[in-house]
Amino acid sequence: MTLTRRRVLALTAGAAALPVLQLLPGQAFASPEDVEKQISEFAGGKEPQTGKISLNTPEIAENGNTVPVSIEVDSAMTGDDMVESVMILADGNPLPSVATFHFTALSGTAAATTRMRLAKTQNVIALARMADGSVYMDKKEVKVTIGGCGG
Amino acid sequence: MAATPKPRVKIPKSASAGEVITLKTLISHEMESGQRKDKDGNTIPRKIINKFTCEFNGQTVFACDLDPAISANPYFEFSAKVPESGTFKFTWVDDDGSEYTEEQSIEVS
Amino acid sequence: MKRYSLMAGAAFCLAVTGMAIWTAAADPVDETLEIDGVPMTTRAPAPEGHPFDEVLSGWLFREAETRATQEDTFENPGMIAVEEGAEIWNTVEGSAGKSCASCHDDAAVSMKDVGAHYPKWDADSGKPLNVELRIDKCRVENMGAEAYKFDQPEQKALTAFIKHQSLGTPVELDLSEGDMQTWWDRGKETYYTRTGQLNMACATCHEGAMGHYIRADHLSQGQVNGFPTYRFNTGGLVSLHNRFRGCIRDTRAEFPAAFSDELMALEVYVTWRGTGLSVETPAVRQ
Lengths: 151, 109, 286
Hints:
The structure holds 3 protein chains of 3 kinds.
Chain A: H1 5-17, H2 32-43, E1 49-50, E2 53-56, E3 60-61, E4 67-73, E5 83-90, E6 97-103, E7 110-116, E8 122-130, E9 135-144
Chain B: E1 7-10, E2 14-15, E3 19-27, E4 49-56, E5 59-66, E6 75-82, E7 86-94, E8 99-108
Parallel strand pairs in B: 2-8
Antiparallel strand pairs in B: 1-3, 3-6, 4-5, 4-7, 7-8
Chain C: H1 8-21, E1 34-35, E2 38-39, E3 43-45, E4 54-56, H2 64-70, H3 78-89, H4 100-104, H5 107-110, E5 120-122, E6 127-129, H6 131-143, H7 153-164, H8 180-192, H9 202-208, E7 213-214, E8 217-218, E9 229-231, E10 236-238, H10 240-250, H11 261-273, E11 284-285
Parallel strand pairs in C: 9-11
Antiparallel strand pairs in C: 1-2, 3-4, 5-6, 7-8, 9-10
């Protein structure tokens, strides 16, 4: 789906007009420091590089309770060219951690898909730690819409 | 009914040696996040599947640590390289310590 | 249906909402739904007397990831409930010592296509029964078991299991039986009656604003061929009467009881509005 300016305006106008859905009361969201800390712990202090890992999420999630998320890391998955783990973070959730995948030579490819909860529009971050300790990162913003019909 | 999580697994029945196959798993589980409150304002305690593993003939193929941000009825899709005929064992670990397992065999030619 | 007087605030709200609804529109997608490779009818010529030329499945109004989840019965989490329904089918309950299977044997044979023709006239009770009420009738009269409470998980699971036996079969009601036509008329009246503080009828959204957005929801024709439906929102099955009540609640009206004559009439009429669409139970929605 393409998000046109016209549609964004309509969404905003609609949101102001029809506050049917209750937002979660008093929910605290993750701070940028929480997210930084998790990244640095996973990366063992190394600076994540771009490349190798691709994160696939919908641009707009119809419902934040179930958002598909896929990752794939470019790796032969043999010998020294191995992906150890991939961590997924959501920087606007109450807790940023979503999941950490662990791969082995028997995985064949370093690719996985799951479904996650996003509390609001935010960045999803995927980090891959390779067997040699290098770390790669990809990041996507997911817009989480609030529908008009809670029924 | 929702009390006993029910695992579902989908793998090919057969493959050729060294082939990379796709595996899909789904388990019924509410994945109570620990972030929600009941109608009296008390926090509903966290109860999630926190670990999932897939083994082939006793060796780890894929594992995942799950956090409360994983949706209800956790779904995974991942791959495995199958060198020989054997059995996949899938294990889901619940916060209360329960383990739910499922096994499926594959014929490799 | 109880109708509240329209307050000034609600009138303002409706005016703004109206603007929002009619500024954005998007066509339903031009895609074909195949479930495990079997094609479904998601567009069908409308029956005579229908306000639209073509009836469209709600699947066509959903985003790609929602649509994809319904295309594979493994990935569709609603199938968990269908499998639970299969267990219930074979479970003995009640004083007669019977299960559904004791009389109806293999549901894949005995229930094939059955759900596509419900609600159905029931001469005994002098009214149409939907699948839920038909199950209850069997439980009470033949099994010596209690009727299910509305929306108890077993009711949703067994209903979904039975309707799933009609997966792909086009919806078609027999309105010539008994007083079905009278119930259809009554349901039609409800469909077009504005209600609640927001003064909206079913038709306001699902006919007048079909294809437009209400906040971020892409309004469909409000077809019911996929119920009970798995919703990402709740992570479980939502029954049709729950959905009816949710819609009516969203107009800020008092909602009628599930399976009341009013909602049964509405089910007859709304089901007819989807004539020709494949049964998609359990459909996947946001």
